[in-house]
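Suppose you are handed a protein chain with no further information: no name, no annotation, nothing but its sequence. What can you learn? This example shows the usual starting point.
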Amino acid sequence: MAKHAARVASPRVVNIADLRTLARRRVPRVVFDYVDGGAEDEITLRENRRAFEEITFRPRQAVAIPHCDLRTPVLGCDLSIPVLLAPVGYSRVIHAGGEVAAARAAGQAGTGYILSTISGYPLEEVKAASVGPVFYQLYAMGGREVAEGALERARKAGFAGLFVTVDTAVAGMRERDFRNGMKELLGRSLLGKIRFSPQVLARPSWLTSFLLDGGVRPLPNVVVPGRGPMPLIDVGSALALSTISWEDLRWIHDAWRGPIIIKGVLTGEDARRAMDEGAAAIVVSNHGGRQLDGVQATLRALPEIVSAMNGQIEVLVDGGIRRGADIVKALCLGARAVLCGRAYAYGLAAAGEAGVARALEILRADLERTLRLLGCPSIAMLDRSYISCQRL
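A reasonable first move is to predict its three-dimensional structure. Written in structure tokens, the prediction is:
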């Protein structure tokens, strides 16, 4: 851990972009592009970042702030910073520590982690790794019976809430994955792997760790009766057969019996429908630009959804968060907190748990510095008066 921490310490790594650079050097192109890429022309991927650039700050000068309070209540949990680690599937392929390493780092930082259904580790092991709140994210892969089995396990393990992703009727067309041979490299055919093997052989340390960890593992939280854990290569077809509809939320509520957060909402109409169906919170999300290309940046969609919710339930947002200033802008527009995916996934790829911890450390320092420069003593006091956003 100490060796890995030194790898991502300052001055080598001072921001999330530095973690991205290091990640590119340490993992095969297919793995890096899986984390880094988006759907089709990647328009939405770029727009998620560009939207933050269109907002400027309106600071209060000559304000002395002896203490900056970053604590935020989110979904009934007291977080040290208004940041949750978003669900990132295949994390164990990114680094052998995978979901366990990310959850542990989140807990040590005083914040929460959201575990993807497409996890390489059993959900019980991930929950046990963290001293902070851990949430489960549901894809109904394998059908209702399989999903109910996972929900029962998550409930018994003490997960704090359930994120239901609603924007994956089919997997998005992530062209980088096709070009790099993601399907072939994860598949069983040795012949299929040969064409794409040079990029993997070019990263011997990652390859050694990957092979020592057992290579491509089945999904321990998608257990099909009579067949066992679903193979990782079956995910695309399973998603296409497991679209979640509004009607499904009824049996999900019955099976979960706890707070449900709807992730993947981009319109006020869908947000109101989610609230009517009993959602405890909404995540304004376009899946990091990885599903339908050409949709609105989440920061631009956020005000409409905050207005539609009118303070009745919490609104979270993800997409494009790379700096503490981005978090502040989202909170000024009405988000209770943000979800970060790529920011910590770059850290995971770069240095495992130490890289995730460094990503959170960077965001925390950025966040506090931004608040102090704004002349705002606490997260709770942020509002639109601190920003100028003529296009939103």
